[in-house]
Amino acid sequence: MADTSYSYRDLQDHLKELKKSDLLWTIDEPIDKDAEMHPLVRWQFRGGMAEADRKAFLFTNVVDGKGRKFDIPVAVGALAANQAIYAVGMDTALEDISAKWGNAIANPIPPRMVNSAPCQEIIWQGSELIGEGKGLDALPIPISTPGFDSAPTLTAANCVTKDPDTDIQNSGTYRCAFKASDRMVIRMATRVGGAGGYVHWQKYKERGEKMPCAVVVGCPPYVAFTGPQKLPIDLDELDVAGGLAGEPINAIKGKTVDLLVPAEAEVIIEGYIDPEVLEPEGPFGESHGHVALEEFNMPFEVTAITRKKNAVIPSYISQVAPSESSVIKRVAYEPLFLNHLKNVLGIRGVQKVALHEPLTGLLRVTLIIMDKGVPRTEIWRALNGAASFKGDMGKITIAVNDDIDPDSADSILWALAYRHNPAADVQLLSHRSQGHGPKREHSGEEDGTLLIDATMKEAMPPLALPEKEYMEKAKALWERLDLPPIRPETPWHGYSLGDWHSRWAEDAKRAAEGDYLENGKRTLARQQKSPDFKPETSVRQIEDGWDEE
Ligand SMILES: Cc1cc2nc3c(=O)[nH]c(=O)nc-3n(C[C@H](O)[C@H](O)[C@H](O)COP(=O)(O)O)c2cc1C
Predict the structure, then answer these.
(1) Which residue CA neighbors atom 16 of ligand 1 most closely?
(2) Which CATH class is domain 2-315?
(3) Ligand 1 atom 23: the closest Cα is on which residue?
(4) What would be the CATH architecture of the domain defined by 345-452?
(5) For FRET with 83, which of 343, 503, 531, 540 sits at 20 to 30 Å CA-CA?
(6) Protein residues with CB under 6 Å of any ligand 1 atom
(7) Given pLDDT bands bounded at 50, 70 and 90, which one contains residue 3?
(8) In terms of pTM, does the model score above 0.85?
(9) How far apart are CA 308 and CA 314, in angstroms?
(10) How would you class 543 by CB atoms within 10 Å of its CB: exposed for 0-12, middle for 13-18, buried for 19 or more?
């Protein structure tokens, strides 16, 4: 059909691309989606594997806790088990993702309407939604945290709603817990910086109307990635996905709701949310790394399920970070922070913003990597700017220089240990909302903000490891001797931190070439007889010729 031609990938094209790039494991033996699937994939996040070694999993033979078989395969980790997988989904190199997001947000492309679509090849309505093995119960949705979760829960969903005043759609990734073959409960975060869908829900509640909603499962990657992205509420995610694709995303009207959905999605669950009704949802293992306890959320009455004949269902693995959920958010959020500091606030010397991932889960700890020698006033503007950019992020915000690895807690503690003075380089701010975290059951309780300038305030002596060329040659030697494999950890070589002199560099070179006796002769000539200063006095205080170079 002419009007549906497109060149972006749908989920199944994306899986083929992952296979080609050796980023996909296919598991053909029967796997229990309720008790085995997520724990199995979890091991690649908690089993000491390097980030680069993680892959997506495609389960082709899915069963449930009762041994029931499903005809739909399930993909876990397929959008963001690691950054390389995300980059395949974005069809670009990792280092270009930031610019691609910036361009798409600045230049959104509205969708192209089509009259028929793969996502509506099969349509279930009415009695086809009722009963065991029908409706939602026919979809192989895994349990994410067996032992804690109370329901199979959709995690890889883009939940589409529409502002009843402006007709502008929003699409956010919110979890949906299955309750019956025709009912699930959605959780839209009510906190500041939470779900755009909740803003719509409030409007429908005020009008006394039910809210139409389409939960899109298995979007083309460009569309999927817009679900967790923090976009302004009045910027339609389908338009931004078009910006990412560089062409309009094909869209079709839902069968029972007046909403536009991506035509090449795998499965779409259509229905209505009655804002006058709430139902208990959870417990569910959350991305802040704790179990969200049972709370009232929004029941969603299903009016239709539409799907491709040969649909594949994705499931994001979330909970304790790192996880697919933290990778998908990290790659999307860090460019937003950098753009805000550099281009909106115009702060000089900001190189990068890193959201700390393992266990803390991105939202709590922000690292700002600054050039050396940037005025303190700029560093403090960056600290305040990053901490206030999003209402639910940046509780602990730390500025460091670019030799500090923001992904290494050791490295961060090293900066704190040697480069900041707690009495002078720390500020505490009041009045932060609790943000996304384990509920404390004390409504209204406020949190605070900790800002730390852990950048170097002045030149320091070099890092005491052999210089890079010696370490590189030694690595080649290590490998030639067939010693066990090593993984270099930053910092793995010494380097100048500003306080160093060419005379010492020459002495060091001579020593490393075996000529230490020559150095000894030279220091003999510099001996001081009957000195009027004590040992440990710097040569620079006594001798001439040590002026800065
Ligand atoms: C796996 C995953 C699950 C998520 N679950 C929820 C959720 O249940 N509720 C929620 O409000 N946000 C959830 N989020 C975060 C939102 O997707 C994110 O805040 C996004 O910006 C929301 O889009 P919106 O601003 O259009 O609402 C989740 C994100 C991911 C990656």
Answers:
(1) 228
(2) mainly beta
(3) 172
(4) 3-Layer(aba) Sandwich (3.40)
(5) 343
(6) 155, 170, 172-175, 187-189, 194-197, 227-230, 287, 316, 318, 325, 328-329
(7) low
(8) yes
(9) 14
(10) exposed
